[in-house]
Write a structure and sequence with these properties.
The chain has 15 helices and twelve strands. With 397 residues, it is of the alpha/beta class. It folds into two domains: 194 residues, Rossmann fold (3-Layer(aba) Sandwich); 84 residues, Roll (Ubiquitin-like (UB roll)), CATH 3.10.20.30. Helix 4 packs antiparallel against helix 5 and helix 5 packs across helix 6. The chain is flat and about 65 Å long. The protein binds adenosine-5'-triphosphate (ATP) and magnesium ion (MG). The site of magnesium ion (MG) has 7 residues, from helix 1. This is Obg-like ATPase 1.
């Protein structure tokens, strides 16, 4: 018998809420195209799109299918009666203005909506259109990005300051002889470290390297700058088609200086609005007409995929003649928790999983061939789920 495999541990705790039902919020200055983007993304008119600032007040929510070639391939193979892809939950949020952290505009209400999401799609206006009012008077994406960054940062500083005060009061109350409060002291030291990071280092929390213990403190504070940001640069159709805008390089440089590594995706809400009601063929024809490379010219698929992976979400599949379905879970979870995404009973009564990788199925062509090659394995409670696994769960009574 081969030696027992060492238990695979998930190495680091992730920043953010635990759980699999994570949400991404659309954030940006007023009137930059957030609701119009939300509507094209959700193929609905749920979002209040209008040419005036603060059209959106209450958040609207939609579940957006996440494109995945593997899922399409599985549906071709199994030809199931029902097909359920992975979804990304998106929320259209009200516009944010300078001073929001101290209550300007829709201020605190807005920021509480940002607090409730797990990741951010930040819409940055880079299109010129005299008809569309800009609350700051003119188009300047760098200034706008700075405003949002400052507001989120200020709110975090305020929040961390409050936590720090709380810790100081508690330390006073307990005095010096509180051996039992080593953990509390450690927590206070972490909060102090976070405060310095935000103020002295002048950086967002997600850009730091934190220990698991520190991440636990960060997560308990639900800090805004800990949430992943994907920058969506809203261009005119023409600039998007020509891949040319005087702002793109500047935006890129700003992100590299301020938040290195955060993804930036150029797109055009006006082009997406043209495409939204079209069939796949019509979209391809429209792209060709505009001189874009072959295929669907929309950037929405790319944006959805980027949002999904920014939240550290992965998916596994269940496949059969009745249904091919993708199940979303946070990276780093074990088999029982993955089974629990389907039904909590599956987690509690978990016995094992028969698991093969998508790549093996694609290579061998059929489930029977994968089994014959010994590439479908029985996995126990310690198995760490991988993106693209195909699973059959076995549960007790
Ligand atoms: N790429 C673009 N080119 C031209 N006009 C655009 C573009 N993107 C959005 N717009 C226009 O900008 C206006 C504002 O859009 P929208 O209501 O979606 O903004 P919003 O960010 O949701 O605003 P609010 O913060 O007020 O809710 C609309 O008239 C929309 O058609
Ligand atoms: Mg809106």
């Amino acid at each position: 018998m081969p030696p027992k495999k060492k238990v695979e541990e998930s190495k680091e705790i992730l920043l953010g809420r635990p759980g699999n039902n994570l949400k991404i919020g659309i954030v940006g200055l007023p009137n930059v195209g957030k609701s119009s983007f939300f509507n094209t993304l959700s193929k609905s008119d749920l979002g209040k799109a209008a040419n005036f600032p603060y059209a959106t007040i209450d958040p609207e929510e939609a579940r957006i299918p996440v494109p995945d070639e593997r899922f399409d391939w599985l549906c071709e193979l199994y030809k199931p009666k029902s097909q359920v892809p992975a979804f990304l939950t998106c929320i259209d949020i009200a516009g944010l203005t300078a001073g929001a952290s101290t209550g300007a505009g829709l201020g605190n209400a807005f920021l509480s909506h940002v607090r409730a999401v797990d990741g951010i799609f930040q819409v940055v206006r880079a299109f010129d259109d005299a008809e569309v009012i800009h609350v700051e008077g003119d188009v300047d994406p760098l200034r706008d990005m700075q405003i949002i960054s400052t507001e989120l940062r200020l709110k975090d500083i305020e929040w961390v300051e409050k936590a720090l005060e709380g810790h100081k009061k508690e330390a006073k109350r307990l005095g010096n002889n509180s051996l039992a409060d080593k953990a509390k002291k450690e927590e206070a030291a972490t909060v102090e470290k976070l405060y310095n990071w935000l103020t002295v280092e002048d950086k967002d929390i997600r850009k730091g390297t934190w220990t698991n213990k520190e991440v636990e403190v960060i997560n308990s504070l639900t800090l805004l700058t800990a949430k992943p940001i994907t920058y969506l640069v809203n261009l005119s159709t023409d600039n998007f088609v020509k891949r040319k805008s005087k702002w793109l390089k500047k935006i890129h440089d700003w992100v590299q200086t301020n938040n290195p590594g955060d993804p930036i995706i150029p797109f055009s809400v006006s082009l997406e609005e043209t495409l939204v009601a079209m069939s796949e063929e019509e979209k391809a024809a429209e792209g060709e007409k505009l001189g874009l490379p072959k295929g669907n010219p929309s950037a929405l698929g790319k944006i959805t995929k980027a949002g999904y992976s920014s939240l550290h979400l992965i998916r596994y599949f269940t496949c059969g003649p009745d249904e091919v379905r993708a199940w979303t879970l946070r990276d780093g979870l074990k088999a029982p928790q993955a089974a629990g995404v389907i039904h909590s009973d599956f987690e509690q009564k978990f016995v094992c999983g028969e698991i093969m990788s998508f790549e093996d199925l694609k290579e061998h062509g059929t489930e029977a061939a994968v089994k014959a090659a010994g590439a479908q394995r029985q996995q126990g409670k310690t198995y760490l789920m991988k993106d693209g696994d195909i699973a059959y769960w076995k549960c007790g009574q």
